[in-house]
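Researcher: If only I could read backbone structure tokens as easily as an amino acid sequence. Walk me, if you will, through where the backbone shape changes along the chain. I have put the entry right below:
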Amino acid sequence: MSCKPVPQQAGQQLAMPPTDVGASLQQAKAQGAGELTVLYVAAEGFAYTNKQQQLTGVTVEIMRDFAAWLNASGQLAVSLNFVEETDWTRFYQRIVAADGGVFGLGNVTITEARAQQLQFSPAYLNNVAVLISHADIAELQNLEQLATSFAGMQPLAFSGTLHEVRIRALRDQYQPGIEIGRTGSNQQLLELVASGAWYSYVDAYNLWRAQQQGMPLRHHPVANDSGETFGIIMPLNNDWAGLMAEFFNAGQGYRNTERYQQILQQHLGAELTAILEQARLAQP
């Protein structure tokens, strides 16, 4: 791909739609029913439209399981209104600004800084962040090799994510002064890295899927970061968060159920499920 991502200006604000609103728990209890608004960013395996033109995926089905659990255990007739947002940064900003029973599905990494802006569900997935380049680049044995092995390539970041922070740290240490390219699309990021002119960080599941599709990409395990987890996000005034935590922690724990494993394997495949679950089980 010949086009170069246009660097975005710091603090750039995107046009925002009207404030997203969902029924509060207090309202739902008073009325015996409530509609929750669920914003999502489409992502293969996690929130996507299948061949039957039905919205599904890991995070979509987890939200449906949460609604079913509420209906069964709380005597509340809860319905879900799924709303797509195409820009990840705007998706995040919409959840921060939302009111009441609004939830966000965007594979958002749980961090203390973000927890000052919004609420997280308990983790629904452990992530492994991986450094990638074109397949012709030899695997790095240590990060000190980056300056020479990656000479002639530029760092590329998915704007507004922790991957951008990781790439900036590598650039600052090993390629000071080199401009960072930015993109807001995982697909474009992968295509640019596959062109041979860029290197970047992605989530392990994105690399795995790209390699399955035949993209010429090299994984550099020396730079793996497996310490992060994803959570469903909610505005600070969402009063369903306590019930969301109860849902994840009920019984043996949602992530230890056959249902959770079924969802992962159905939408991510057995091999990728094993990789991600290994990251979870390896955590202390």
